[in-house]
Amino acid sequence: MRRRSAVIPASPRVPDETRASADPRVAGRLAALGRFCYRQRRWVLGFWAVVLVIGVLIGGRVFEGSVAGASSASAEADRGSAVVTAADPARGTVTAVVDGRSVEDPAVRDAVTRATAEIAALPGVSSAVDAYGPGPGAAALRSADGNASIVSVRMADSSTSAQTTAVTQRLAAIKADGAGVTVGGDLVLQDEVKKQTEKDTRFGEIVTLPLTLIVMVLVFGGLAAASLPVIGAVASVGGALLAMFGFSKIMDIDTSVLPIATVLGLGLSIDYALLMVNRFREERGHGASISAAVERTAATAGRTVAFSGLTVAVALSGLFVFTSPVLGAVAAAGVSVVVIAVAAALTLVPALLGFAGRRIRTPGAPVPDEGFFSRTVRRVRKRAVLVALVCTGVLLAAGAPFLHAEMRNSGAAVLPASSAGRQVAETVDQRFPQAAAAPITVVVQSGATVAQAYADDVVAKLPGVSGVRAVTPVSDTVSTIDVLVHGDPQGAQAKQVVEELRADRGGLTTQVTGGAASVVDFQDELLTRGPIALGLVALGTLILLFLMTGSVVMPVKALLMNLLSLGASLGALTLVFQDGWFSGLLGFSPTGGLETFIPVLVFAFAFGLSMDYEVFLLARIKELRDKGHSCTRAVELGVQRSGRIITSAALLMVIVFAGFALGDMLMVKQMGIALAVAVAVDATLVRCLLVPAAMSFFGEFNWWAPRPLRRLHDRFGLSEHVELPELAPAVLPAQRPAEELVGTAS
To answer: Which of 85, 300, 461, 566 is deepest in the core (most CB within 10 A)?
Structure first.
């Protein structure tokens, strides 16, 4: 006789937990999507497997097609460089430093001159010069101590990578007893940046994925549930690489964009899948079958994921306002990565739940209404004003160092000290001052005689100028003036000289270029377009949060709190990478400032990620509020029921960012540290203390909105209840009929 299965009644909290605070149309479509992906899980899994394979095989080539240092046609420094390139086309230079023996040593002289002659005859070479050639320029290729010299090779504009490699190999093969050869130059630097970026990206993925899996095993108490976010993240990265490869065919993708977009996609994918799996376990704990739990998860957590992805995309879209190609590429790649992460969470995760659902450990009881987070909220509420003031003071103090931040172009310093290209660049700067790039270069669209007169009458007389090194004719109609400045080549005085040169052009057509000019151009763009970008991001965020909450108070508070946590992140960035705190531990040498575009990217990414957690928390509080709970109780329950998952998600995100920060590329390291700090501060100090304190302080006023806006929200807002299918009685997994187990495994 067949033994009856033990039946467990559904939890009395089922009606409360399974109503979604969402637009019925949105939740209904998401529920239908989850149902479809569950039923067609083999096809969905196959689709994402194809995306992953194509992404790895084809998308992985995006590193080859990326551009190291994409230029902007709207910036004067870049326009000046374009004028010089048009007058004397060249793909770039390869430079060798021969060091360790006297330049006058016959063996050294013979080896260098022979190599220079052979290289000059190679295809793709425009010119090759050394310290033994005719003319006064040869003296600049000798070090002051006479123990080192430079061989400089200019590659023609039509030259290929293979031809550049042949030149590099021949320079490295220079043999002279006791003399060492190091090969660098801008072409070598660009190649090293691409290779190091790809290496750091792969390293970050290899380090973070196993660590996140271990943490998720601890969070979920089992491997089946823990593995799904990792699988979703891997698939998302494949899709992200494919998307960026597509963008690289229609726009210049700066090499630095790739790891930034990858780390964003990896972190968001893990976060979203974690939220989906957690909600699935909750629904199973309330007695839902696997198919019903998937559908409910798609309608509830799926809505939060979609809404969260939209807020992150809005934050990144603010970068489209800037004309800098780096920021535009980050915006395009970042938004596409967010879309892919959301798509994977809403389609791939439900399909994976269909395969692994019965192996995922079901919680024995719903998340308790009493626990660490609810007790913390009550303690905070008793001293809400004091907690809010202390947290705000701490965050403002943490952000204060950013007030003295300096922007700069780090150049070769973005590479590790072991890089040959960086070693050559630093050697040239230190030992060959006449051959090093000038801090400021003035491009004069005129002959050398006119340019020399302008240099003597205007340039040399400026107070910040220490001298005019050379006036060089590039063609009959274009000349360059190398300008030396007092102090830091990219410091305040150098920037002032740039402004003075642009204010007094001597009646000529000139462009002021160089490192200091590039920093000035970027800062000018921030001042003119930054407020517009900030305004658009803030407006979009306020509208989205209003549609979700129906309040104008909570969106404004969320915006202000995000700015506080963002300030703390930028302050930490300044202390570490400008002032040098923990530089030895992190393995880099401070450059005296922050890479120009990093603070902008940190703002966009950190703002989006902070709003991501804000949506996680407010969605749960709003859901409880719509079910009739008071504001006080909704905050307690919302923080209690979402606190653990938000903290877990933040921990995983910090692991991802920290893993990328362990790489050797300075820009990737800066982004990793800044975002790790932003997420850690936001998930602890802000979400656990400042948000409950502020909501307790405002009370029912949290939900206030003017009457016209309330009517608008009633019509267009995302707050109505949606009915989901009734739950079937829950059956203990170990005691379910065999046919059900077979069905769920198929």
So the answer is: 300
